[in-house]
Amino acid sequence: MTQSTSHNSHSAPATGPTSRLVGILAEFSTPDQLVDACDQARQAGIRRMDAYSPFPVHGIDPAIGITRTRLPFLVLAVGLSGLFVAMGLQYAVNATDSIGPFPGYPFLISGKPLFSLPANIPVTFEVIVLSSAFATFLGSLALNGLPKFANPLHRIARFRKATNNGFFLMIEAEDPNYNPRTIRNQLEQWGAQSLEEVHLDLTDHKLPSFVRMVFVLLLAVCTLPPAILYRSLGESNTVPRLHFNPDMDWQYKSQAQQVAPDIAVGDEEERPMFRDLRAMRGEVPGTVIRGQLRDDRAFYTGISGAEAGLALNAGGASYVSIPNAQDEAPAEPDWLTQFPSNEKFAVNAQTMQRGKQRFDIYCAVCHGTTGEGNGMVNQRALTLNALGRASWVNAKSLHDYTVVDQPVGRIYDTITNGRGSMGPYRSQITPEDRWAIVLYVKALQDSLADAVAEDEEGKWVPVRTTPPAPVTEAEPAAADATTTEAETTEASGGQN
Amino acid sequence: MHAAKKTKVTSPNVSLGDAGGSLILLGGIGGIGLIIAAFFLSFFVANGVTSFLHVYLVNFLFFVSISLGALFFVIVQHLTRAGWSVAVRRIAEILAGTIPYLAVLFIPILLSVIAPSVYGAPDYLLYLWANPSYATEILAPDKVAYYLNPTHFGVRALIYFGVWCIVARYYLNRSRIQDENGDYKLTTSMQFWSAPATLFFAITVIFASFDWSMSLAPIWFSTIWPIYFFAGGMLGAFCTIILILLMLQKNGILTEDVTTDHYHDLSKFTFGFIFFWSYIAFSQFLLIWYANIPEETIWYLPRLEGGWAWASLVLLLGHTLIPFLLMMPRTLRRNKNFLWYAVIALLAMHWYDHFWIVMPQMFVSLNDLAALEGVASEAPRHIFGPVEACCFLGMAMLYAAFFCWEAGDRPLIPLRDPRLKESLNFKVH
Amino acid sequence: MATTIDEVYNNTWDDPRERSPLITGGLDYGQVTTTVTSIAESPAPPRAWYVLMAISLCLVGMLGTLLLHLILSGVGVWGNNNPTFWGWPIVNFVFWVGIGHAGTLISAILFLFRQNWRTSINRAAEAMTIFAVICAGLFPGVHIGRVWVAYWLFPIPTEHLAMWPNFRSPLLWDVFAVGTYATVSTLFWYMGMLPDLATFRDRATNKWKRMIYGILSLGWTGSARAWHRYEMAYTILAALATPLVLSVHTIVSFDFAVSQLPGWHTTIFPPYFVAGAIFSGFAMVITLLVPARALFNLQHLITMRHLENMCKIIVATGLMVGFAYTIEFFVAWYSGVKTETQTFVMRAFGPYWWAYWTMFTCNVFIPQLFWFKKVRTTPWAMVVICIFVNIGMWFERFVITVTSLCRDFLPSSWWYFRPTYVDIGMFIGSFGLFMTLFLLFCRFLPVVAMAEVKSIMPHEHEHEEDHH
Fold first, then answer.
1. C: neighbours with 3+ CB pairs under 8 Å?
2. How far apart are the first and last CA of chain A?
3. Which three-class secondary structure state does DSSP give residue B378?
4. Is-contact A453 A461, C-beta < 8 A?
5. What does the pLDDT look like over A144-173, one tens digit per residue?
6. Does residue C262 belong to any structural domain of this protein?
7. Interface ipTM above 0.90
8. Are B201 and B163 in contact (CB under 8 A)?
9. Strands A167-172 and A49-52, how do they pair?
10. Are B142 and C336 an interchain contact pair (Cβ–Cβ within 8 Å)?
11. B109-139 residues labelled b (16+ CB within 10 A) or e (exposed)
12. What is the pLDDT of residues B140-172, one digit of tens each?
């Protein structure tokens, strides 16, 4: 199978000052002969040699004296660091508030803990495999000294068979047992078919300087786009961007209360859903939506008597408490002073529990869990106020006498419709829950009473002996906020 | 440098010889004695016959899964025309050949299912669904009528054991006949039947795993369950084969023919099945944990609460992480001294896996039953105790006796298998 | 040596006393080289190559046009509706990712199992894997709707967006799994190709080829030290790729199975998806290699035995898939959960009965023909069956995705899913992309791993039985 005639167009280059002898290359016809030759060379004391074959020849490693590579340890080390990187990344991204200068992303999604091991295993596994695979690939190349394009062996025409069907052994000239006179004979004895000296060309083959210049320039140019991108990341721009496609900036949509086509999308006209130009149907006259009858008006408004009907129809009682333009003191409606009682609400321990729970969800963030007006949002906002980055109005302490003295209906109305800068909670909290909160607020207030005493009916009631605190006790912080918002709030009695 | 090729078995001893007889006697008497002791002990230190039956089931499942793993090993070697494994295949054939004896050990379990409906015996012995009042009140009527009832359970068990016995005995007997006459056509026919055998094996193991261990929690279901059962069994089988080979070689049997390379390959498969078991266990857990549907989480909740949370952690570390890391290095896999410890530890973990599946269910079932009857139940918590120890030791001794009985003084290596030469000269590169 | 194959030696005989040869025709090392390199060295490829290339390029053009249309108009041009939010794009994604499993399976798992027959087919299968993964990545890539912000999928720090991916989402696991799989498969493929690229370099006759293959082969010489580390690296990569290949389709199955939707949420999904992936992957390998070996005269290297073995794997994995269908059905009934049972009954007898039974027939019934040796050794029959398998596996993903979604928990939102021409066109177009890449690969890169084939050939002259 081997054709061992050696006519090369450029055989061994002339030995001269421009080249150096690297070693001698011998060709063998079968892998077994190659292994045998390696074995004999090793027995002859030669250590600096290497064999070349088109495929891995088994049994050659001990013959040449190749020790087991350390590649597995490298891969293990990189794989382990992949484990820590992946875990750390997931922890930092999903379970912390910030990662250095960047904000974190700590959101509870589908009820999973922020850092939940089972859900973090898949990504960790993939990162370990990815990093180990790169370590294996790059590590094996590095250990093999690849890529290496300048190799004196590639100048030998016969050596091209090494990737086809040739089996070669090269003994390096630098081996202490390399004897230039006897080595040829030895190799032929060991079965070599042809021998050739390998020379390293010492002439300067550096790239022309202009090529290197161009290369460096290209590299520099390549860094520009990422640099520009990075610069523009944090910038804002007033010029509208180019729109190759709508990109969700314009969408076909009908708004709930829309009564006329008011959105134009390009050339197209936004079509309302119905012939009367509305996007939604109104209620059918003479009907009541299921669950919306609200016949117990006092229960739903906190106002007793005829005014309640008025308040309900107007969509809330707030009309009575907002001062009009002439600064006339508004007439206070007839607030409920006793808790209502119906099938939805009753004063008992269960309701109190419910009230506490709702209070802690909806109210405590501003008013604090004890109602002293020091909730987390409030604290944070005051900090921002101090930095001049917000104009927050201090949340009202529920133990303020202005609040303590309020009838329950009034407190209910505050929750329903809001007061000052406190927004309405009508849509978030059901009426019975609002009453439960009122109940809890009352209990909170009583809890800070100075003493208890028996009243006329023989019931124990809380008594306050300390003089009423000034209404504007909490105002200094609000005073910093010089917006009209703050003024409105003051006028309407602060945040209740 | 090319070592001379071996062409035939060269070990001085290839069979158990006389040692087998005394082992059978010791194992048989001791085993039965210990199991009976466990039964009586259970009345003093545990929850009576219910506890005993659960512990018994743990051990039964442990040994039957090993034999089934060995059976699959044998079938697959024929299916893939494997050459390397011939030298160790007989051990697996014998392990699989013990299935008929294991069928006898199934009788107490079968009785526990029949007893409540026939004799009106205690409400709850082993399988909650065998309690007629529970079955009618809680379970879907179809499921009780067509699947989870004593008659169907018994008939199915009969089919499973029937199929396994036929397949296991077929492979063991053919292989032994070949020892006598060296007819290579026996191998051809064994190979021919390996494909249908795989098919029947798969069907029976799927439903056996549903019947015997998944139905302990009668309303719970998991489609991956058979694979979980199978993966554990394969791991157990590989460990048992390695352990038996180590013991045999220590006693001067098969010393020349089973080489480090065979151990290397067997432990590679052990490593593979550690990973596979973990993969299946994790998949099952993740899907149920993530979807968080109450009817599925009921199985994991009792195992992740109280003391059982620690027990689950032991399983995670001992069945997955630690063996995975320890079995990875090639040098350790080729080290017989290491393998002794490794396979014993892994077998312990495999046993523990079944313990973890079965035992918590007993308390869940007792509580469920108490709730059904409107009684407050304080089911006793469970730790490893004398009942477990006696029952395991007894069953292990019986299993050893079965193995020795089947091995007899016949060869423990297929002497005239046409691919034996390939196996004797097998080298891992 | 341009071999013309007159008579192909049938090496599918099965005699326990003797191993049948893995490659036939009595080729020596040099002939193996020429058989493979002649494809790339011949001045012009066969005419069929041009015809196929022309068709494929037309399909790629169609794919490109439709992609442009999709990106400019938005994903509304697909048939996806409410409640079938995942329509064909996800079906196609899972289909292609599944096909992309055979390559790594052959080169990694069969390598670890020392199945030497893999050497003749692993290169082409790996290439196919990478091209299939490219096709797969296309669909979720454009399914996000705004492709220009696709980088949001990756954990890239930005200050003003204040946004990171949610690592607890299976969809993000998918990004990592498919990304890792594509990268590692490519590394594995390239690593395996290094010695063969060096062969191409050393045989190149013109300067450009020599330079290009020279750069690609990184100066490989085949030294024993390099081979030693190379083999170690290859083993490690195989050991890494084996769990990786399991994990990829497992994670794809998690996309479905971590939900609470009946028909999606079932614990057997991970292994069942993996088995299905192997099944479809091998079917695609046969579909491609049977014509390719005839076209490029590779019958001595990719022998009948190789094809037969693959047929056996197809019938085995087909049965696993069939078992999974059955277990799902059984457990749906066993669970006693109404929605679960209902979903499966609806699959088989509801509005999509035709899809279900197409799937069942193509995946479970038709491959049973491979029990017959005659079928396993008739190339055209294999191709026909394998095309059925591919159709069946596409329908499997369709059945899983669409039938579960179109009947969700709210009967008011039940809706029948219909694909649009964009759906259909993009799916067909993806075949064009796949074929184009594969045809280019056949023409310019080593189709068979020459070095690996040579290493399992019996050494000449001596040690006849000594094949490692």
1. A, B
2. 100
3. coil
4. yes
5. 888 888 888 888 888 888 888 889 988 888
6. yes
7. yes
8. yes
9. antiparallel
10. yes
11. bebbbbbbeeeebebbbbbbbbbeebbeebb
12. 888 888 899 889 999 999 999 999 999 999 999
Per-residue tokens: A53: 């074959």
Arithmetic mean of pLDDT over chain B? 89
Assess if residue C19 is contained within a domain: no
Q: Are B223 and C331 an interchain contact pair (Cβ–Cβ within 8 Å)? A: yes
- Any idea what the CATH number is for the domain that residue C185 is in? 1.20.1630.10
Question: Structural domain tally of chain C?
Answer: 1
* DSSP structural state of residue B377: -
Residue B19 bridge partners (DSSP): none
In chain C, residues with a C-beta closer than 8 Å to the C-beta of B183 are none
C-alpha distance from A423 to closest chain C C-alpha (Å): 27
On whether residue C23 sits in a domain, the answer given is: no
DSSP state at residue B381:
P
Do A22 and A173 touch, CB atoms closer than 8 A? Answer: yes
Instruction: Give me the torsion for CA of A48, A52, A56, A62, rounded to 10°.
Output: -20
Question: CA of B332 to nearest chain A CA: how many angstroms apart?
Answer: 14
Domain region containing C193:
29-456
Rounded CA separation B154/B160 (Å): 10
Q: In which band, very low, low, confident or very high, does the pLDDT at B421 lie, cut at 50, 70 and 90?
A: confident
In a domain? residue C340: yes
Element holding A200 (H helix, E strand): strand A194-201
Q: Which amino acid is at C14?
A: D
Bridge partners of A170, per DSSP, are: A25, A50
Instruction: Please work out, in degrees rounded to the nearest 5, the angle formed at the alpha carbon of residue A424 by the alpha carbons of A419 and A429.
Output: 135
CA B132/CA B135 separation, integer angstroms = 5
What letter does residue A208 receive in the DSSP assignment?
A: P
Cross-strand partners of A112: A109
- Touching check for C458 and chain B: CB below 8 Å? no
Residue B63 tokens read as 């040994």
CA distance A46 to chain B (A): 18
- Alpha-carbon span A157 to C123, nearest angstrom: 28
Full set of structural domains in chain A with CATH: 18-203 (no CATH), 299-491 (1.10.760.10)
Residues in CB range of B309: below 8 A, 6 or more apart: B303
Dihedral sign, Cα of residue A412, residue A417, residue A418, residue A423: positive
- 3-class SS at B80? coil
Check A118 against B289: CB less than 8 A apart.
yes
DSSP state string for C220-235: ---BHHHHHHHHHHHH
Q: Which residue has the tokens 């002791």?
A: B37
Confidence of residue A259 (pLDDT cuts 50, 70, 90): low
Q: Which one has a higher pLDDT value, A196 or A91? A: A91
| CB proximity under 8 Å: C 143-202 to A | 146, 155, 157-160, 162-170, 172-173, 176-177, 179-180, 183-184, 187-188, 191, 195, 198-199, 201-202
Q: Are strands A264-265 and A49-52 parallel, antiparallel or unpaired?
A: unpaired
Would the pLDDT of A82 be above 90?
yes
Q: Alpha helix (H) ranges present in B305-335?
A: 307-316, 322-326, 330-333
Q: Which two tokens stand for residue B8?
A: 């035939």
Reported as a pLDDT band with limits 50, 70 and 90, residue A325 is very low
Distance CA C442, CA C435 (A): 10
Check: CB of residue A25 under 8 Å from CB of residue A197. yes
**DSSP 3-state of B273:** helix
